Write a sequence for this structure.
């Protein structure tokens, strides 16, 4: 209840305290939370290391941009684009999943990494011979999201309170993040969630339990991808402009860092990780202002310092709390019993 | 124990079964039968093709030739998740417990293909009665169990699917001699309670002691098939596998 009031009042508090820019940062935080929850299904639940997750975000974003911008003169409504984005991204998820079903661990990571780059490079080059994506220039003037005739791109006054565009987007993103959270929680406790856990633990044994490992893995890829597709569409509408640059490998790694840092497999942990890794880099920008104020000049470029501190934080985290800040129950157990008898090496794989 | 083959209904029937990895033939035209209620063992040296044969029976490696029938239905080329639903449960080599799940969660995974909750709960109780150690450690994660306990868990988990045929792959591997003895007693008990078992084992002495019939495999082929007692007194088997 209290949390509900706080979440509802948050954009106004942030607006009053830190300014409009920070409301937008808040919106981005929610987008990243959705992305991280989506990747958490693939990596945290099913244990499939996906380093190209941003590709699904790109697919969702480009789908929205192409169907709701002057690029093709199409302006499809949001309520249609949202499920369509989920569906198409889900299909792309299966497209990635199908050829990689037999791969495990590192091999899977390499293929997914390649997949992510292929999607980005496609977006970058699909401007000739037929111009589809507008290449590196990206697509601009994307329609803002509009619900029931109310465009979230404009400022609205409702009951005497002024809602800026950033505020309206906040509420939409919040609602969808809560929905994604709810779906994630239900999935974890479901039959499918348990099947994912079994595959993550021991694929051969999971097969022996009667789990259709092929379908269940494809489902993990598709579910995770569809969450990414939804966030991508929201991103395109919110930002009004997208280009292939936004979907590079570093973004995939960043989202992976969010879930590793926060606690893989744990929803609260994933949300915290997404929050910290979106807000902290922004907060560290102010180091530049601080230097200017204190030394009257900029000694260290804040952008460099940000990456330095970020790297340092990751290293320290992996050294002192590898299970993440809020680890899932299973990972907590795993890290607690380091001296426990270990599983013998998987002999099945050696015979293949 | 005298189990005459003619009186028993054939449960599993493999004919001319072949398994190949690339060009290497691991199993060559093997005929194998398991009748209802029997405990059959498959013995042989390392690399003789025992595990390949077993994995092909439960659909984990494709057969490159031959047929498998189970209770009259063809299992040839069926995927493993369907074969489990026919009533065949595998206890994989190296146990394959879900080490980060608790003992109870592991056992519940064993009943993944079932939906009859009340019966699952009662089966869980009977596994706990059979293995009191597992009951004591029900909330503990499976990776912290000792090797023998993990083997019990793997067997218990397989029983949770109410199999008609239990496939055991090297249950004695990596266990202390006392524990091996105990696992074999358990296997005998399960068999006496009416579960049909196909046991793949390197410890030929113990395997032949508990089994009704046995097959001897050598470089991918079945070289001998007989009553377990006859095999145990066969001079060739005694020399090659029983260390005499």
């Amino acid at each position: 209840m209290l949390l509900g009031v706080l979440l509802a009042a948050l954009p106004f508090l942030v607006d009053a305290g830190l300014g409009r820019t920070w409301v937008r940062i808040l919106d981005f935080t929610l987008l990243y939370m959705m992305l991280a929850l989506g990747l958490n299904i693939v990596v945290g639940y099913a244990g499939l290391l996906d380093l190209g997750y941003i590709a699904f975000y790109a697919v969702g974003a480009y789908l929205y941009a192409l169907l709701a911008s002057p690029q093709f003169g199409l302006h499809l409504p949001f309520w249609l684009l949202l499920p369509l984005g989920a569906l198409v991204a889900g299909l792309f998820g299966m497209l990635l999943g199908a050829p990689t079903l037999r791969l495990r661990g590192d091999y899977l990571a390499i293929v997914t990494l390649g997949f992510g780059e292929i999607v980005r490079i496609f977006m970058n080059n699909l401007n000739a011979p037929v111009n589809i994506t507008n290449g590196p220039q990206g697509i601009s003037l994307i329609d803002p999201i509009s619900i029931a005739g109310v465009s979230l791109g404009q400022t609205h006054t409702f009951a005497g309170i002024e809602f800026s565009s950033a505020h309206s987007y906040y509420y939409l993103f919040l609602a969808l993040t809560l929905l994604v959270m709810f779906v994630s929680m239900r999935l974890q406790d479901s039959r499918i969630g348990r099947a994912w856990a079994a595959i993550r633990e021991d694929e051969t044994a999971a097969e022996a339990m009667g789990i259709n490992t092929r379908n269940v893995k494809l489902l993990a890829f598709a579910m995770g991808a569809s969450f990414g597709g939804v966030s991508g569409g929201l991103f395109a509408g919110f930002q009004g402009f997208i280009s292939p640059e936004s979907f590079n490998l570093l973004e995939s790694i960043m989202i992976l860092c969010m879930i590793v840092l926060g606690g893989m497999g744990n929803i609260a942990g994933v949300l915290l990780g997404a929050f910290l890794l979106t807000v902290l880099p922004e907060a560290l920008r102010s180091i530049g202002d601080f230097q200017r104020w204190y030394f009257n000049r900029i000694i260290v470029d804040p952008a460099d310092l940000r990456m330095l501190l970020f790297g340092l934080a990751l290293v320290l985290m992996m050294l002192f709390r590898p299970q993440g800040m809020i680890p899932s129950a299973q990972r907590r157990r795993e890290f607690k019993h380091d001296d426990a008898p270990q599983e013998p090496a998987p002999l099945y794989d050696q015979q293949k | 124990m005298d189990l005459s083959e003619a009186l028993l209904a054939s449960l599993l029937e493999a004919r001319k079964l072949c398994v190949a990895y690339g060009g290497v033939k691991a199993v060559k035209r093997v005929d194998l039968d398991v009748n209802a209620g029997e405990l059959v063992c498959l013995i042989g040296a390392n690399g003789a093709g025992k595990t390949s044969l077993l994995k092909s029976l439960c659909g984990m490696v494709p057969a490159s030739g031959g047929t498998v029938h189970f209770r009259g239905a063809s299992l040839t080329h069926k995927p493993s998740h369907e074969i489990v639903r026919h009533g065949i449960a595998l206890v994989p080599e190296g146990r394959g417990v879900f080490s980060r799940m608790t003992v109870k969660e592991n056992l519940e995974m064993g009943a993944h293909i079932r939906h009859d909750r009340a019966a699952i709960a009662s089966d869980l109780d009977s596994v706990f009665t059979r293995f009191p150690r597992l009951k004591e450690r029900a909330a503990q994660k499976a990776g912290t169990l000792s090797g023998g306990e993990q083997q019990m868990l793997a067997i218990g988990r397989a029983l949770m699917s109410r199999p008609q045929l239990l496939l055991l792959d090297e249950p004695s591997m990596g266990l202390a001699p006392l524990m091996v003895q105990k696992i074999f007693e358990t296997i005998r008990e399960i068999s006496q309670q009416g579960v049909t078992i196909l046991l793949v084992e390197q410890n030929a002495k113990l395997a032949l002691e508990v089994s009704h019939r046995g097959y001897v495999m050598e470089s991918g082929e079945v070289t001998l098939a007989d009553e377990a007692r006859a095999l145990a007194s066969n001079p060739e088997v005694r020399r090659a596998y029983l260390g005499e």
Remarks:
- The two ends of chain A are 55 Å apart (CA to CA).
- Chain A touches chain B through 34 residues (CB under 8 Å).
- Confidence is low (pLDDT under 50) at residues 338-352 of chain A.
